[in-house]
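Appendix B. One record, verbatim.
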Amino acid sequence: MSKDRKQADGAPSRPHIDKSEYREQLHGLQIELVKLQKHFIASNEKILVIFEGRDAAGKDGTIKRIVEHLSPRETRVVALGKPSDRDKSAWYFQRYVPHLPTAQEFVLFNRSWYNRAGVELVMNFCTEAEYKEFMETVLEFEHMLVRSGVKLLKYYLDVSREEQAKRLKDRETDPLKQWKISPIDAQATKLWDEYSAARNEMLSRTHNPATPWTVVRADNKRITRLNVIRDILTRLSYDGKNLNVLRTDPQVIFEYDETHVRNGTIAP
């Protein structure tokens, strides 16, 4: 079981779990994911999970553990690159529509249309008018998806400033992570406050009962992955659900509330 480490002054630090226990728990949860897939294929369900968060928040690793043992025919990971000139001239959501799930599909977006409320806004890749239009219409778009039968889950992986800096530094020295390096990385820490302000505005204005945001304190990668998988499994129905392995940690994963920004639960 995960536990809180104590700092020298007795204050709680971030939770910890050893590798063997992590692997055991992950294996049990991946069995549950296979059960889930069997159910939504039989029921013709459409599942869409959105992952947002700062650079190096752990989106890639979390998604990898979710899809690791699922059927690739019914599972898709979508990570769109830089928009083309044609994309820029189209309706903003148009480039995402072809990637939405159809019956029997489980689709995970590694970043999504919320790029406009984060990277594009902070890096001036969109105009103020384009940002305003997005913020005024995104919930209408999501609600249409929900009404059409799409089960939509939104996760924001929240990493601390110190942990992000450490992970970005690791990318520079780890030859297996070189593909993750981008020009935007250099701005991630320099523009920390700007990204925080954009995140807060995004969460505040787009959290709603139909498509709520779930926030994950993501400084510990192992605990992040376990809690995200548990939360997904808890929110979706399937036969043979083992409730004993689905207890999430409310200190790690929780539905967004403005008080979490004010009290520092979400990294300032």
